[in-house]
Amino acid sequence: MHVAGKKLDINPEVFDGKRGTILDSGTTYAYLPKAAFVAFKKAIINEVHDLERIPGPDPNYNDICFSGAVSEVSELSKSFPSFDMVFGNGQKYSMSPENYLFKHSKVRGAYCLGVFQNGNDPTTLLGGIIVRNTLVTYDREHLKVGFWKTNCSELWDRLNVASNSTALPPLGGEFTAAGMPPASAPDVEPSHVISGDTLVGYILFDISLSINYSDLKPHVSELTSFIAEELDVNISQVHLLNVTAAGNGSLVSFSIYPEGSAEYFSNTTATHIISRLAEHTVQLPDTFGSYNLVDWKFQPPLERSWWQQPYFVVVMGIVVILMLALSAYGIWFTWRRRQEAAIPYRPVGSDSAPVLEHELQPL
Fold first, then answer.
1. Residue 200 has what DSSP assignment?
2. How many angstroms from the chain centroid is the CA of residue 174?
3. Are 47 and 69 spatial neighbours (Cβ–Cβ below 8 Å)?
4. What is the pTM (predicted TM-score) of this model?
5. Are the beta carbons of 28 and 286 closer than 8 angstroms?
6. What is the DSSP letter of 247?
7. With a cut of 50, which residues of the chain have pLDDT below it?
């Protein structure tokens, strides 16, 4: 094993203990014998001294996590070192940080080691995290295994190109084949592209998650937050509509509304949101497993009721101002009348007692 190009001080026989080394893509993470794990953990920590060590998302587990890294998975190599596995015949399988890290589910820009100590078991178990974005060949006849680094999301899109595409171009530059023509572009626009005259008031979509319903339920609010973050919208715009069990997984329904007082999305924004989901560029923490976009709809703007219309608000404002002005005038008029009533008035020639005259006093 190499970290950042440096060979770790591990006896190769460590990987032959008990059941040897098992590659199982059905297991989520990787589990190493104690000696190998301690050396790997120490090497990683020494290479990321600029990052802050933080607790893991689940207090029940002593995860090794770091914050302060970039948020984009494609740029993780700027913060974390490379990791290589070297086989007995000298062949080397080089991995990027995404092959040994998982996203912290509570801290943005934080990642945790997805490689753990396999208890006291000397068996080495390499799970699905090790082969992320990797095509794996299992040659049982010749007892060989092969790895080809690729971009699985891009590969999936290319496999869905129109049926008249004759071949796929190589991805990643690690495999070449002579005479392989490039795939032709699809003749039709993707279904999530919107015509220019369409107004999108809000978006509905369903995603399936590989995590089962009982495990997902406590983390639903976190899922909403991550969906908003990955789609570049405010969390107030994302509304969770429904969560149901679907076989061994879960089905989650969301709606997304325009920001603030806006009545509709721009076509560019609406297309961008669905494209990120359809093309699997949304990166959710491993807590939620893998996801697939099951269904989506662009809905027209909601019709406002009469009391929601702007002119109604203006009219009501004017009415309130007039009522306040009339109330103020009424109060002033009443006060003035009371002041006048308090001044005594005696008409000339009245029968009241005469007032005694007094001489003017000299100044």
1. B
2. 31
3. no
4. 0.48
5. yes
6. T
7. 162-190, 307-308, 360, 363
